[in-house]
């Protein structure tokens, strides 16, 4: 029995056990899925594609990143808010403000619930769609693993190169001079004058012969 009083309704909502809280995080299906599965609403899980119908992010359509059961809220990819320090975090959105446009069928327990009371043709379509989604998820997982390995290899090569390279001495920092301080300069010694000695070049002229008159007088 559910009470009409809002006070008691809130009390039941917050004091419910975990499995009942999880069921309350549900959203309506789009018209195509409603006619296909003959269900109006379903609990939202990680991987479902939803569209925001109300609020400042109205019209935004993307996958569900996570589901918070205690706070009864969803985190959708691409919807963020900035904190006072400048960091971006995911903005929580209430499940009543979204509509499910594509279901995540990789969970076998969820597929069993859909298949109850449905025709065999619809069951086959569900299985085919589930196989395609599982393959796509595996491909995405492999791509992520490759990217992580490439990043690790790059980091290892950087570390090896840094170890091999010799450490360069750090340049000496010039201490800033305070105001009022005078430059201390050492007095320069007077430069000595170089003594210039002129060397006489030897004469290349031949010695003069005595004249004949001098020889005769002798």
Summarize the helices and strands and which ones pair or pack.
Blueprint: H1 6-15, H2 18-24, E1 26-29, H3 31-37, E2 41-43, E3 49-52, E4 61-68, E5 73-82, E6 88-93, E7 98-102, H4 108-115, H5 120-164, H6 212-217
Parallel strand pairs: 1-7
Antiparallel strand pairs: 1-2, 3-4, 3-7, 4-5, 5-6
Order of helices and strands: HHEHEEEEEEHHH
Characterize the biggest β-sheet: 7 strands, mixed
**Broad shape:** elongated
Using only C-alpha atoms, the radius of gyration works out to 46 Å
Overall structural class, as computed from helix and strand content, comes to: alpha+beta
The percentage of residues in β strands lies in 15-25%
- Helix count equals 6
CATH classification class of the largest domain: Mainly Beta
Q: Supply the number of structural domains.
A: 2
Gross CATH architecture of the largest domain: Roll
Model regions low in confidence, pLDDT < 50 over at least 5 residues: none
Strands of the widest sheet, in order across it, are 2-1-7-3-4-5-6
| Helical content band | 25-40%
Number of strands: 7
Mean pLDDT: 82
Distance between the termini: 170 Å
């Amino acid at each position: 029995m559910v009470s009409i009083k809002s006070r008691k309704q809130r009390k039941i909502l917050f004091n419910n056990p975990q499995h009942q809280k999880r069921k309350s995080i549900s959203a309506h299906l789009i018209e195509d899925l409603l006619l296909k599965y003959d269900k109006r609403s379903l609990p939202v899980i990680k991987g479902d594609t939803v569209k925001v119908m109300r609020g400042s992010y109205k019209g935004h359509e993307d996958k569900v990143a996570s589901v918070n059961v205690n706070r009864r809220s969803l985190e959708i990819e691409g919807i963020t808010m900035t904190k006072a320090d400048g960091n971006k975090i995911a903005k929580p959105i209430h499940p009543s403000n979204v509509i499910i446009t594509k279901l995540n069928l990789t969970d076998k327990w969820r597929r069993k619930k859909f298949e109850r009371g449905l025709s065999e043709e619809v069951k086959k379509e569900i299985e085919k769609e589930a196989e395609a989604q599982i393959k796509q998820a595996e491909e995405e997982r492999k791509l992520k693993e490759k990217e992580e390995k490439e990043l690790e290899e790059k980091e290892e090569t950087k570390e090896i190169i840094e170890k091999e390279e010799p450490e360069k001495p750090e340049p000496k920092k010039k201490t800033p001079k305070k105001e009022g301080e005078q430059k201390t300069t050492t007095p320069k010694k007077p430069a000595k004058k170089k003594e210039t000695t002129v060397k006489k070049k030897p004469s290349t002229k031949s010695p003069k012969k005595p004249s004949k008159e001098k020889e005769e007088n002798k």
